[in-house]
């Protein structure tokens, strides 16, 4: 998708250059209008006009003037291109987009489809698996070539912090340079909201599975929350998380160059 969008952007750029080139040629060879003096202005010296007419035909332009006009038109065409929304430049933004946007897109699609179904069914085990973090590194992982990173990553839930939200955080950082930009702050704030929602969803899923209780001291006197109440809470959290996701997407898509496909909202 990125390559196709980049191709369309290149074609648009070439079209702009061609249009600017044609306009520059037309302007360069257009006869100059006659001088019409206004009040307070002095009419041109007729002797100077005759001397200019002897050097070149009236209404024509010199070769240097022609190439100067073409150069100005080309620069103007380049100015029509969308500016990169990052102080680090196009290359850094492109790398971050290609690296993290697939995980972000997959996470958003899972949230609005699969996770929505799990929440509607009160599938506590399914919700827990969808949000679970990968296991911590074990001693035996050190003997593997990649220290067990790939194996642990496969165990991360489809909307876990490690799989989706970390990628969203890193993508947000690509819009800042020496100082944190307002765009990065907005994106990271939305990610932090989603992170809190995920943590609460994990807690509700554990309660639904009987792995966690509310209240009491050191587990004494804790009460089990009714299923209906857990269902109500998880649905409210789903809506809250969806709104936070849309805030992230809105901030990410704002002022993005045309060659990048926009992230999708949760509806």
TrEMBL record:
Q: What is this protein called?
A: Uncharacterized protein
Q: Which UniProt keywords apply?
A: Signal
Please give the organism. Answer: Phaeodactylum tricornutum (strain CCAP 1055/1)
Q: Which residues form the signal peptide?
A: 1-28
């Amino acid at each position: 998708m990125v390559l196709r969008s980049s191709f369309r952007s290149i074609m648009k750029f070439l079209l702009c250059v061609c249009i600017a080139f044609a306009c520059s040629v037309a302007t360069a060879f257009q006869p100059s209008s006659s001088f019409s003096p206004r009040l307070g202005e002095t009419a041109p010296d007729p002797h100077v006009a005759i001397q200019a007419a002897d050097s070149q035909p009236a209404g024509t332009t010199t070769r240097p003037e022609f190439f100067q006009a073409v150069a100005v038109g080309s620069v103007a065409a380049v100015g029509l291109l969308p500016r990169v929304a990052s102080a680090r430049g196009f290359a850094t933004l492109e790398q971050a987009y290609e690296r993290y946007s697939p995980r972000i897109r997959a996470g958003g699609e899972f949230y609005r489809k699969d996770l929505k179904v799990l929440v509607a069914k009160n599938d506590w085990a399914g919700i827990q698996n969808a949000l679970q973090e990968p296991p911590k590194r074990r001693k035996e992982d050190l003997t593997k070539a990649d220290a067990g990173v790939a194996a642990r990553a496969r165990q991360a839930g489809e909307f876990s912090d490690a799989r989706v939200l970390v990628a969203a955080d890193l993508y947000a950082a690509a819009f800042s340079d020496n100082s944190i930009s307002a765009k990065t702050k907005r994106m990271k704030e939305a990610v932090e909201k989603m992170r809190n929602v995920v943590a609460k969803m994990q807690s509700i899923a554990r309660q639904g599975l009987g792995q966690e209780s509310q209240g009491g001291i050191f587990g004494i006197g804790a009460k089990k929350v009714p299923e209906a109440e857990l269902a109500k809470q998880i649905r409210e959290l789903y809506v809250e998380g969806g709104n936070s996701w849309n805030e992230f997407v809105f901030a990410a898509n704002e002022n993005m160059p045309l060659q990048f496909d926009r992230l999708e909202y949760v509806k």
